[in-house]
Design brief:
Strand 1 and strand 2 form a beta hairpin. The chain is elongated. 49% of the residues lie in helices and 11% in strands. Pfam families: CH, Kinesin.
Length: 971
């Protein structure tokens, strides 16, 4: 294709290569086959015929060769390397590559000729092909030998070594050849003279190679490379040291190398193993040390937790002793995850920090409660913290739990659970009743009855939830009607959890719910679930308590809740009643004398819990969303204020058997007394008949009814109507003795006739007599004293201080004042508290004289005030003392003996010797702080008055009402 090349008939490889070295022939040929494949061919004019004379310098023809090779590669034909044309001493295979390439080019041309551009291309392998196989193949060694190794397989096969020298020489030559080839291929930084020397082949090539290397690289790198090369050479030499023949050399070499590698690997493994054992030991030690430290820390931590727990317990005990309202705060989870939270921190100790997420600077506020439940707290965890309180209902304590907070903050969720309840999400109401049932089952010695009431306050109207009925309900004072604050609401007995569940579902159905912008199922009423527990143990002791579970409706800003029409009206009622609750809490916290319970139905209903001796727990619910920051702050402030309210220690509503026996005894005494009254009337008739001068007064006495009103003081639970009757009686009918005084002796009218002391005598046979008969006290046995103010009205006006002081006086002054008399005090105390105010006022109008001593105590608030004032107590003690003095005076020196037929018979066995005057006066002195003047001085004078004998004027101011016999004498 390119014309004659000037080659001899049988050219050597060298001739052939030299002919092609300039690249001109090749470029022209490829341009013929693929026109324009090499756009510019560098031609040397002198080369023409003298190609075999002088090889062109590499840099001159390199351009042609490179262009040719690029064109070949573009045609995807087998290629060779430019360096293949550079050598005079051709390696085995290098010429083969060039031949392959030219043959492929020829075949390509032939295909082009026959089939056009898309014809099949069949490569023809050069006859030298076996020799052209790649002789250098990298062997990636493992372990410490990182050098490249030579794959000698082909060489070994083709040219088996014959002896050791030959093998050595061959190995070194091969290595040097390979390295130098690589060096020349890169053609960088190689001194031209060195290349020439190399080409001449006269110089020792190993040395020459070292020189080239040192020229090319830094010394250090050379050393490294050199040492690697030497190592390879050494390996090759090792290979050559074994008996040779038939290619065994290579295998031995491989075997040896592998053995060495194996040895190195083994050393490495043992080294690694020992290192591993060391590490293991070290780790073991570290772990032991860590364990010891962790133990230390855990001991410290458990101590810390114990201390925190104890602190909390003590704090709770303190709060309980002070009777504080317990306050738990619960934070609802954020409903929409994109919302910002205003909760900064929730402490384990009940602290809570909130901030305004829209103005984070300087808006952080901290609050402290008994406990704070975070958004992830489960219903069970909340109940666990409440359980102890709820369980105390079974021990006779009244408990009230109420949920307070903004609308949608989770009150109903806490109290009743979510609308679709599962067993884990049950609210406190359900769990509490469940628990109460469980306790009642475990306490076998007490028989419990559990009743449930469920009502709601909707728009300031109280209505039942357990029946569909529109009738209105009334709130009453608990203590007057067997513990029921809403007596006409339906009471449902419950015996199992399923009863409770049914009941609550029923109640929920009847409750008022509505949808607002803030909560799609918003409670529009306050719901109150009251659980009444009545227990009786085998010895007859009873407990009676109640648990109020209140789910308040949520406070709401009507602009936010978008309430209209009925919803707006509901919201106004809800907000008003909650603000009334706030007023009550505020008044309680400030210990005001007036607590505005009556301002709303809600506060009226909670009055017995807030104002009584119940245990109170408030759940303050907050929404964590930043939008609700304002409402959250006001809820938290309300809760904080509530936690400062001190209600006083809770009372246990337990009535022992003994108390009941005493009550029975009082009943018996009442009966006996009534009989005795009848006898007395008969007696008075007889007296009237025998003494006509007394006719008029006896007529008046006849009009006096039997004296049930005297008994009212003993029985706090006497029906109101009975008490009212006795009061009416009092207005119309005066004590016969008083009347006698009015009618017979004017100068005695000024006496404080309304104070008297009744002394009932209990004979051994158990019958009682009334001292109104004015029997001598010396003959009394087993005295039971009843202190009456103004005779029968005493129960309406009796001040608790007076009574208790008087009773104590009796206990000290009279050895037979039995313990059971004192145990009766609480019921009497209650009675005095329960008297309606208007009754007291009426009495005051009728009995102005009493005002000096009693009127200041006639309201409940003044009773409380008097408790605080020691001087009042002292005064009452003194007045009781004077009364006693009077009674003694009356009893002691009375010279007139009643006709034996008119007196109850008292046997000598029943009579106890009277307390001596000295002893009495000493006791009196100890109680009244008034010095006794001596046994010769009368008791009246010992209380600050003068001797009975000193003047008649003193008699006029004597405060002892005369006995019946004395009256008779005066008349
Ligand atoms: N702790 C909680 N975990 C999961 N969801 C809660 C929690 N508390 C409240 N929710 C959900 O928030 C929503 C509002 O709760 P809920 O109705 O109990 O609020 P509320 O305070 O009773 O509102 P309202 O006063 O308007 O009746 C309900 O969908 C309830 O399921």
């Amino acid at each position: 294709m390119v014309g004659p090349l000037g080659l001899p008939q049988q050219p050597t490889d060298k001739d052939f290569i030299s002919c092609l070295r300039s690249g001109i022939v090749l470029c022209n040929a490829i341009n013929k086959i693929q026109p324009g494949a090499v756009p510019k061919v560098v031609a040397n004019q002198s080369i023409g015929t003298a190609w075999d004379i002088q090889p062109l310098p590499a840099y001159q023809y390199f351009e042609n060769i490179r262009n040719f090779l690029d064109a070949v590669e573009e045609l995807k034909l087998p290629s060779f390397q430019a360096s293949d044309l550079e050598r005079d001493t051709l390696d085995v295979g290098s010429a083969a590559k060039i031949v392959d390439c030219i043959l492929a080019l020829k075949t390509f041309h032939e295909c082009q000729q026959s089939y056009g551009d898309n014809g099949p291309l069949k490569h023809i392998k050069s006859p030298l092909a076996p020799q052209s196989a790649a002789r250098i193949r990298p062997i990636i060694s493992s372990g410490s030998v990182n050098s490249r190794r030579l794959d000698m397989s082909n060489a070994d096969k083709k040219e088996p070594v014959e002896n050791k020298e030959q093998c050595d020489q061959y190995a070194v030559d091969s290595l040097v050849q390979v390295l130098s080839t690589l060096m020349f291929d890169s053609k960088e930084n190689i001194d031209r003279s060195l290349i020439d020397l190399w080409n001449e082949g006269k110089t020792d090539r190993v040395k020459l190679f070292s020189k080239i290397m040192s020229n090319c690289l830094e010394e250090e790198q050379v050393l490294k490379l050199y040492s690697k090369s030497v190592m390879n050479i050494h390996l090759i030499l090792q290979c050559s040291s074994v008996p040779l023949g038939n290619g065994d050399c290579y295998h031995w070499y491989q075997l040896d190398a592998q053995e060495k590698e194996l040895r190195e690997l083994k050393a490495l493994v043992s080294e690694t193993r020992s290192e591993f054992i060391d590490l293991q030991n070290q780790m073991q030690n570290d772990l032991t040390e860590l364990g010891a430290r962790a133990l230390e820390l855990s001991v410290a931590a458990s101590g810390y937790h114990q201390a925190i727990k104890e602190n909390r317990h003590l704090y709770n005990v303190l709060q309980e002793l002070r009777g504080n309202i317990r306050v738990y705060c619960r934070i609802r989870p954020i409903i929409s995850s994109s919302e910002k939270s205003c909760i900064e921190y929730i402490g384990n100790d009940g602290s809570l920090m909130v901030f305004d997420a829209y103005k984070p600077q300087n808006t952080h506020k901290t609050f402290q409660f008994n406990k704070v439940f975070g958004p992830t707290t489960t219903q069970g965890e909340v109940y666990k913290e409440t359980q102890a309180l709820i369980r105390s209902v079974m021990d006779g304590y009244n408990v009230c739990i109420f949920a307070y907070g903004q609308t949608g903050a989770g009150k109903t969720y806490t109290m009743c659970g979510p609308s679709s309840r599962s067993s884990e999400e049950m609210g406190i109401n359900h769990m509490a009743l469940n628990d109460l049932f469980q306790i009642s089952c475990t306490r076998e010695d007490i028989k419990y009855e559990i009743h449930v009431q469920m009502v709601e306050i909707y728009n300031e109207q109280l209505s039942r939830l357990l029946i569909n009925c529109n009738g209105t309900l009334e709130i009453r004072n608990c203590s007057g009607n067997g513990g029921l604050s809403i007596p006409n609401a339906r009471m449902q007995i419950v015996q199992s959890t399923s009863d409770v569940l049914n009941l609550m579902n029923w109640g929920d159905k009847n409750r008022a719910f509505g949808s607002t912008a803030m909560n799609h199922r918003s409670s529009r009423s306050h719901s109150v679930l009251t659980v009444h527990v009545h227990g009786k143990d085998i010895s007859g002791n009873t407990i009676r308590s109640c648990l109020h579970l209140v789910d308040l409706a949520g406070s709401e800003r009507v602009d936010k809740s978008e309430a209209m029409g009925d919803r707006l009206k509901e919201a106004q009622h809800i907000n008003k009643s909650l603000s009334c609750l706030g007023d009550v809490i505020m008044a309680l916290a400030q210990k005001n004398s007036h607590i505005p319970y009556r301002n709303s139905k809600l506060t009226q209903l909670l009055q017995n819990s807030l104002g009584g001796h119940a245990k109170m727990l408030m759940f303050a619910h907050v929404s964590p969303e930043a939008d609700s920051y304002g409402e959250t702050i006001s809820t938290l402030k309300f809760a904080q204020r509530a936690s400062t309210v001190e209600l006083g220690t809770a009372h246990q509503n337990k009535e022992s058997n003994e108390v009941r026996e005493l009550k029975d005894q009082i009943d018996n005494l009442k009966k006996a007394l009534t009989i005795k009254e009848g006898e007395r009337v008969v007696q008075q008739h007889k007296i009237r008949e025998s003494e006509p001068t007394l006719e008029r007064s006896n007529q008046m006495m006849d009009r006096t009814p039997t004296r049930p009103r005297r008994l009212s003081i003993e029985n706090g639970s006497a029906p109101k109507t009975e008490r009212a009757a006795s009061i009416d009686d009092r207005k119309i009918v005066k004590s016969p003795i008083s009347r006698l005084k009015y009618t017979t002796e004017n100068n005695m009218a000024s006496r404080p006739r309304r104070l008297s002391i009744e002394t009932g005598c209990v004979s051994k046979s158990g019958t009682a007599t009334n001292i109104d008969d004015r029997k001598p006290v010396e003959s009394e046995i087993g005295c039971s004293h009843m202190v009456l103010l103004d005779g029968s009205e005493a129960n309406a006006n009796m001040n608790e201080d007076n009574f208790i002081s008087g009773a104590k006086f009796f206990q000290q002054s009279l050895p037979n004042f039995s313990a059971h008399t004192e145990s009766r005090l609480p019921s009497i105390e209650n009675t005095s508290r329960q008297q309606p105010l208007d009754q007291t006022r009426k009495l005051d109008e009728v009995t102005p004289l009493r005002k000096n001593t009693v009127n200041k105590y006639d309201t409940r608030s003044s009773i409380k005030g008097s408790i605080r004032k020691g001087s009042h107590i002292r005064k009452s003690l003194q007045s009781i003392g004077r009364l006693i003095n009077g009674s003694e005076k009356r009893n002691n020196p009375c010279p007139i003996e009643a006709p034996s037929s008119k007196l109850p018979k008292i046997t000598s066995n029943d009579v106890k010797s009277p307390t001596s005057a000295d002893v009495r006066s000493r006791r009196r002195q100890s109680l009244t702080n008034i010095e006794t003047l001596g046994s010769s001085v009368s008791r009246r004078s010992s209380l600050g008055g003068k001797s009975v004998d000193s003047s008649s004027k003193n008699l006029q101011i004597a405060r002892t009402p005369p006995s019946a016999q004395t009256t008779k004498r005066w008349v």
